[in-house]
Structures are given as C-alpha cells and as structure tokens.
Write a structure and sequence with these properties.
Layout lengths: L4 H19 L10 H24 L4 H30 L5 H12 L3 H7 L17 H24 L4 H22 L1 H6 L5 H13 L6 H21 L12 H13 L4 H6 L2 H28 L4 H10 L1 H16 L2 H4 L2 H30 L30 H4 L22 E2 L7 E6 L1 H4 L2 H10 L3 E6 L11 E2 L4 E2 L1 H16 L5 E5 L8 H16 L5 E4 L9 H6 L9 E2 H4 L4 H4 L5 E4 L2 H4 L5 E2 L2 E2 L2 E2 L9 H17 L5
Parallel strand pairs: 2-3, 2-6, 6-7, 7-9
Antiparallel strand pairs: 1-3, 4-5, 8-10, 11-12
Length: about 650
C-alpha cells in the first residue's frame, strides 16, 4: 500500500463532480456519482491497510484502527456540524431548526443516512427545502462500513485468513443484488442505505486484495481512459430521473475501479497526479463537508439562487475548507500526543461527538420554545356564515400551530397504499346497519377531504369507502415517481383496479373525486386524461362530485409562518397558484363541480396563509385537516344545492 498520488487526484475528480451537481452546473446532472467514486476509493484504501496489517502482524488492532478514523474524520465533521447549527439559528425559521438539530445529532453518531431514509428524503429533488446536513448521509455510510469491516477482518484473520477474499466477494454480490431489488421498491432507501452501498466498498476492497498492477503502459493507458470515460459519462448523462443506484451505479463504480487499477503511470494517472489535482484532493474531505451547508443556507436566507451564484458559493466554501484542513484536520491527525496509543484519539472522537450533540440540543430546545403555544378550541362555522372559517376570528394564536401543522392530516392511515401497491386495502368506514356508501377516489389532494366525506356519510347514514393513493392521479396518465426514480406504473395498475372495484361493487350513493391539478404538461393534457376516468365513473349511474383543487402555495407555509412577524408575509398570489381547470369549466355530463377556491382566496388576487386564526396549509400543497373541516359545510351546502343528496 504505497502512497498513490493518482488516488489523491481522483478524490479531486469525485468532489468536483459532487460540488458541480449541488451547484446545478449544466452537464453535471449526474455529479452525484462522485460519491460512488469516494466509496470505491475508501474500500480500496481501508481494506488494503487492514490486510497489510494482517500480513505483517497476523492481526487487526481494532482500537488503533478506530483511533485513526477518529482523528481523521470526527474533529472536522464536528466543526462543520457546530458551525452549521449556529448559522441555522440565525438564518433558518424556528420550524426548520429542530429538524436540523436532529440531523446534526444523527450525523454526529454516523446514523444520518437512516434518519433521511426514515423521512423519505429525495437526495436529488429540486425545489424542496433541503437539510444543510443532508450530505452527511454518505459519511454515515462510510463510518458504518468502517465499524463493520475491521471486526470482520479481525475475525477472519484469527480463524480463516484465506477466507477474506471469498467472504468479501459474497458480501459484494449480495449487496449488489439487494441494491438492484431496493432500487425498484424505494429509491431513497436504496440510495442511502449502507447495505445497498456495501458492494462499492467491496469492489474497492477486492481490488486491494488482488494487489494487481498493469505491467504495460498500454494497459495502464487503456484502463485509465476507459475508467475516466465511464466516470465522465455518468456525470454528464445521468440525471435525477435515472434509477439509482441499481444497474446505473455499475458505470461510475467500475470506472473508479479501472482508474485505481490503472495506477499513476498511465496518461490519466499522470494527469491525476498533477500538483493542482493533488492539492484539491487533499482538500476534498473538508470541501465536501463545507460546500453543501454554504449553498443551502444562502438559499434559505436569500431565496433559490441560480447556478452561477451557487457555483461561486461552492468555490467560496474552499476558504473554510482550507482553514479546517490547516488548523483542525492535519494538526490533530498527525499530533504525536494523539498517536501514542488509541485512548487519546478515542477520547478526542468522543469529544467531537458530544460537542455537536450539546449544540444541537441547545438549538432544538430553543426553537421549540419559540414554537409552543396557539389556540386549540375553536368552533367551526356553517356554510351561511359569510367568508369566515370560524365563529370568532383569532389574533392570539394559530390552529394548528406551525409546529403541529405537519401532523394535522386526515386519520385514514389504514387506507394508505404503499408506493409499490396496486390495490387499495379493505377501507370501509361503516355506518351502523348501512349498505349504502360514498366513495372518495383520487390522490392525496382527494384524501385531504376525508373528514368532509366522512361527515357527509355519517349525516346520511352511509358508509365511506376511501380509495386514495398518494402521488397517483385519478386521471388516466402515467406519471414519474421521484421516490421510485422511474415511471409510476404501479399507479396505472392501481387506478385500473380501483375503477373496476367501483364498477363491480354495489352502486355508490355518491362518488367524490379530486386530485392535484398539476399533473401533465398542460391543462389540456390533464383534461384529456380525465375523460376516460370520468366516463367510467359516470357509467356506474352514481352522481360524481368533482372537487376543484385548492391553490398550490409553492412554498412551505408552516415554515414560512413560523419565521414571520406577520402571517400575511406568507400570503401568495392566486394566479400562479391556480392552474386552469378545464373540467371545472366544462364538466362532462353526470359530473358536478364543487369549488371552494373563493373561500381560500377571497379576493381572487391573493391567497392567505392564515385565515381567521386557521393555518390553511400543512406543507407547500395540502390543506391542514383543520382547514378542510372548516370548509366542509361549504362543500356540503354546494352538494345540497345540486340536489345530489336525494
């Protein structure tokens, strides 16, 4: 394991790809594959060092290994975590700060990837509020690799030294198979989970075990060019819609393997060994840590920035990266006092873990104190009470509070259909002795009206059948699923199965349909896609109530309100929030339109974030359950005027 100047330069390639992707630079749409290159490098170097120790001493000194990792990684990570928490306190809204605090805690304990998986975070999503610590998911994956690899090699060195390569090969193959499987089920899980990334470390480790080096320059040239081409093609050709990791990850991973195997003697190896590439490679760890918080926090403070500005921010983050490397990373990594046994370094690692934890608790608890309070007991009004949503407009609090808004949603959990599901479960909210039912059909924008549909059913002695699936339009069109990273074919199957289920069952007393009015490229495309669905529903003979979609704020309303002096600062213009709805304008025969837009955007020009003390939205799209209940009497009154209750 001689020092490899070309690998130092390869780190520069990897970090440039990642920074370019995060900055949104054109032709860096697949720059996230730089992380894959980092994983292969880590697998090669760490496995090589441990196997070298086994060959020289016959054992693995696990404590010494963890001590080296602690000196190398944890102090710099702690500096960035604490700095990000401090900056978040001054820049982010009170509602976002507790999430960042939790992100910091899990990052300090190298578990950030599992937190982001649990929150179903889309790493490649655009337009959503990203955590300034999201990039710590990859460090967590690496740390989990380090934690497991050293004991595994220690055990094999003691019991079955010749089994190191076979065991590593089995782990690599199994991990790759799992990656292919999970990529089809849940791209967020597959992308950030350590079991689905282990094969990339494994390939790097297997290369280290082979200890192969090209004997001819032509071989080195060929491998280097092929490897560089594979990595470059991944960066340029892949996009956020590429199913990843899965099969696509093979290209950058094998590209990195080829570049490492080529060594420093080929033309690519010599290019990677140039002084500028090596200097940037030395900075790669600190730069990776710093660039993302800088970009995200500036976006949070000044609004979404164009790619040239983000590129400038990425370059500017080289300064704190250099300072961190110069005054934290290198001094502690090579300090003689810390290299005399494992305990001093492990104590340093413990301190580097506790410090962000204390800062996170301070930021989180302080933010929660700001968010507490609000009114809870408000009486909803009927449909004839003018433009108010509640009987006594409120000035002293919000219902729900911004802190509670994200959990103020319909309690129809048993009806949720998993992303890979194609059939709704038995989801009948029965009224005692009733054989009649009202059907609620559509996506999450239909499901936001669950309490209204349930109230209608109860008032008329009917049962309610909830047939909804998040992200799945009732209109007949195939959409792309960010979660799955591909076309949402399960949605098409679910829609067909649901329409058949409605048609084959007893005739409903009423069918209520609705969905997000943003599917398709245009209002005309969406209206055309609605035709076969509405035709199938009206063919049942049941009255079909079409709920016009509510306005799309385009920003996280609870987050905005939590940081505003006046909730009116979070109001938004009606025109861009309301896409034209051709079905509402020209409903087909048998379809009856119900519209409450005039209640949530009273003047037709501006849509309020808060009305009469009610926080209207729970995110950047859906109504709070409180708002939906408040609007219920208006919906019921319109249905009554249409004569659909019989």
């Amino acid at each position: 394991m001689k020092f490899r100047t070309d690998i130092e330069g390869l780190r520069a390639v990897a970090v440039l790809a990642v920074v370019g992707f995060h900055a949104g630079i054109p032709y860096f749409t697949g720059g996230y594959t730089g992380v894959d290159v980092f994983f292969v490098i880590s697998g090669f170097l760490i496995t090589g060092l441990l196997v070298k120790e086994i060959r020289e001493t016959g054992r693995v000194r696990i404590a010494e290994f963890y001590a080296r990792r602690a000196r190398r990684i944890l102090p710099s990570a702690a500096v960035v975590l604490v700095a990000t928490l401090v900056a978040s306190w001054f820049i982010l809204t009170p509602l976002r700060r507790p999430d960042v605090a939790w992100d910091a805690i899990t990052s300090a304990f190298s578990m950030a990837n599992w937190r982001f998986i649990a929150h179903n975070t889309d790493y490649m999503a655009a337009g959503q509020s990203q955590s300034p610590l999201l990039h710590f998911w990859s460090l967590a994956v690496e740390e989990q690799f380090y934690v497991l690899l050293a004991p595994l090699l220690w055990l094999l060195a003691r019991k079955f030294r010749r089994g190191i390569a076979p065991v590593l090969l089995v782990v690599t193959v199994a991990s790759f198979a799992l990656s292919l499987y999970w990529t089809q089920l849940n791209q967020s899980l597959a992308y950030m989970a350590s079991p689905t990334r282990a094969w990339q470390f494994g390939l790097g480790g297997l290369l280290a075990l082979v200890a192969w080096a090209p004997r001819r320059k032509l071989t080195a040239h060929t491998l280097g060019v092929l490897g560089a081409g594979a990595v470059l093609a991944s960066v340029v050709l892949f996009t956020s819609k590429t199913p990843f990791p899965g099969w696509a990850a093979v290209l950058p991973t094998l590209g990195a393997v080829a570049l490492i195997a080529a060594g420093p003697q080929g033309v690519i190896g010599r290019a990677l060994s140039l002084r500028p590439m090596r200097r940037l490679g030395q900075l790669s760890f600190a730069w990776y840590l710093w660039h993302w918080p800088v970009i995200v926090l500036v976006d949070a403070a000044a609004g979404e920035q164009p790619w040239p500005v983000k590129t400038a921010l990425g370059v500017a983050s080289l300064l704190p990266a250099w300072l961190t490397m110069r005054y934290v990373e290198r001094p502690l990594r090579y300090a003689k006092a810390l290299r005399q046994g494992a305990r001093p370094s492990l104590n340093l690692g413990l301190a580097a873990t506790v410090l962000p934890l204390v800062a996170a608790l301070a930021v989180g608890s302080g933010s929660l104190r700001e968010l507490t309070g609000g009114l809870t007991n408000l009486q909803l009004i009927g449909a004839s009470s003018g433009s108010h949503l509640i009987t006594n407009p409120v000035t002293g609090g919000l219902v729900p509070s911004p802190l509670d808004a994200s959990t103020d949603y319909p309690r129809s959990g048993k009806c949720e259909v998993a992303p890979d599901g194609t059939t709704s479960p038995e989801c009948l909210f029965a009224h005692t002795g009733s054989k009649d039912r009202v059907v609620l059909f559509g996506d999450s924008h239909a499901d936001q009206w669950f309490p209204v549909a349930q109230d209608i059913a109860q008032q008329h002695g009917w049962a309610l059948e909830d047939l909804t699936k998040m992200g799945c339009p009732a209109a007949k069109m195939t959409v792309h699923s960010p979660q799955l990273g591909r076309e949402y074919t399960e949605c098409d199957t679910w829609r067909a199965n649901t329409l058949k289920r409605i048609a084959d069952g007893p005739k409903p007393k009423m069918i209520i349909v609705g969905e997000l009015n943003q599917y398709g490229k245009s209002a005309e495309d969406l209206a055309k896609a609605w035709q076969p669905t509405l035709k199938a529903l009206t063919a049942t003979g049941a009255p079909v109530v079409y709920l016009r979609d509510t306005p799309m704020p385009g920003k996280d309303i609870p987050d905005c309100v939590s940081g505003a002096d006046d909730p009116a600062e979070c109001d938004f213009p009606a025109k861009p929030a309301l896409r034209r709805d051709l079905i509402a304008e020209h409903p087909p025969a048998g379809v009856h339109v119900v519209d409450v837009v005039d209640a949530v955007c009273p003047d037709g020009e501006t849509c309020p974030a808060v009305k009469d003390g009610v926080l209207l939205y729970r995110d950047d799209s859906h109504l709070t359950n409180t708002a939906a209940k408040a609007l219920g009497p208006r919906i019921e009154a319109q249905i009554q005027r249409l004569g659909l209750f019989g």
